[in-house]
Amino acid sequence: MKKQTRPVEVTIPAWGVFVLESHHAADFQMEPSRHPFLEIFHVMQGRGTIRIGKRQVACQADDTVIIPPGDEHSIVDDPQDPLSIYGVCIATQLYAWHDAAAQWCKPGLRSVNKLALPGIRDNLRRMLYEQSVPRRGSELTIAGLAIQLLGTLAGDRGPGSLPAADSPSMHGHAQAVAQYIEQLRAHFFDASDIDSAAQKLGISRRRFTELFRQATGQTWLQFLTDRRVEHACHLLKQTDRTVVSIAFECGFEDLSSFYRAFNRRMHVAPNKWRQR
After folding, report:
1. HTH araC/xylS-type domain: which residues (predicted)?
2. Is 17-155 CATH 2.60.120.280?
3. Measured on CA atoms in the order 47, 108, 51, 117, is the torsion positive or negative?
């Protein structure tokens, strides 16, 4: 893999997003620069410091750093462990309409919940692929994934919302499961399966099941189904969406499984519950 001694040249295309991959050599150098677009750097490997104005932001693997448009910045690597960075450069028109943009585009290190990291990396890989092998619709895919990344960074509560799983004051795996449960409350619609959840946390299925029940009093499936049905109840009362649409939005793959789950929990069919 070719190591870089200078920054990647960036030209923002018409769709407003450019993705870069930069693996630094030990003698990488960057002069202070300013750009008219937002930059999101995700560190895959290495250590270094990103200078943003007068800030000195130390960063290492798994860190995400925000550089707002117009802010002077430069990167200084640890020569013993140079940085490998993925960057997403986003034109301001893609997000400036959001009234909270100034808040979540503040410069510096962005706290990200460890459970959100796989999703961020998947987005980066997909954007790089679409940019490298363009096809019909790639521009829209890249722009959409960039907006999704911004949404993740804006809404993620980061590791500060709960003590870190490896904190000496907590109980390792139990805390990791607690963090996962917090995430599942907001992402019940895209949960896959219990094996994937346990694997993501790096623990056995049996241990995950034990800790999950201790924390919630329910099995993983019971907890997940309850969150989905609760949201379905909200949509049935607050919107005029069809039952089919609601089932899909809540994470049910087919209508029959939604009806069974809803009847089991609410003891009545969705349409009848809506008419109450």
Report:
1. 175-276
2. yes
3. positive
